[in-house]
Amino acid sequence: MFLLKDDYWEIKKTKEKGYGVFAKKKIRKGTIIGDYLGKVIKISEYDLDNDKNGLFLMYLTDLAAIYPNLKKPDIHLLNHSCTPNCWIYIYRGHTLFFALREIEPGEELTISYLLSPKDETCNPCTHTCKCGSKFCTGTMHLSKDKYEIWQNLQDEEKKKTKTAKFTFGKNLPKLASYPKIIPNNPIYAIISSANEPPSAIPNRQI
Ligand SMILES: [Zn+2]
Fold first, then answer.
1. What percent helix, strand, coil does the chain show, rounded to 5?
2. What's the CA-to-centroid distance between 83 and ligand 1, angstroms?
3. pLDDT at residue 61 in the model
């Protein structure tokens, strides 16, 4: 569900990545883009290998994932990028997307799909990345280092939040209220350093 007002975004077809979400107006750093909603399914009952839509699954717990309504234009249409301008914020167990930096009109809104490092189970791997970033790794799978940074960060965030209330087979209900903006806090520095190759930040103090 988009939480960003309608006049700030539009869905457009991209050259190589299907549909994508683009900014129509300047979006301030920290702005909440939306809440990832959909039907709650049991991961164990889902055939991840045989559904190319598996990339749309968002893990809620170790057992449950959200499967969005693919017929509806929504935040699941944000494409993956190796240098995304949006990131995930766990709020009351919900997966919110927020702007990692200021986003200019016309820019595509992107997120990291945070796929675990590539291993032999992903063969042939269909997770080719076409983000076009100059730091593109060519794959949506994260390197081991970046993946560990993200996992640690997510573990910390999860400790601070309640888990979402849900019923398997039903839609995850939206929350009664949402923050509008994620205020500046150390999370940005951690995420930025995880987003950039070490060679790009030679002088950064973290
Ligand atoms: Zn890429």
1. 20, 25, 50
2. 7
3. 86
**Residue 73 C-alpha to ligand 1 middle, in angstroms?**
23
- Residues 134-185: tens digit of each pLDDT: 989 999 999 998 899 888 888 888 888 888 889 999 999 999 999 999 886 6
Tokens of 184: 């500046």
CA of 168 to the centre of ligand 1 (A): 33
CA–CA dist 196, 194 (Å, integer): 6
How many angstroms does the Cα of residue 3 sit away from the middle of ligand 1?
Answer: 26
The average confidence (pLDDT) of the chain is: 87
Using DSSP bridges, classify how beta strands 108-111 and 79-80 pair: parallel, antiparallel or unpaired.
parallel
How many Å lie between the centroid of ligand 1 and the Cα of residue 194? 14
Report the range of poorest mean pLDDT among 12-16, 23-27, 193-197.
193-197
What distance in angstroms lies between residue 41's CA and the mean position of ligand 1's atoms? Answer: 29
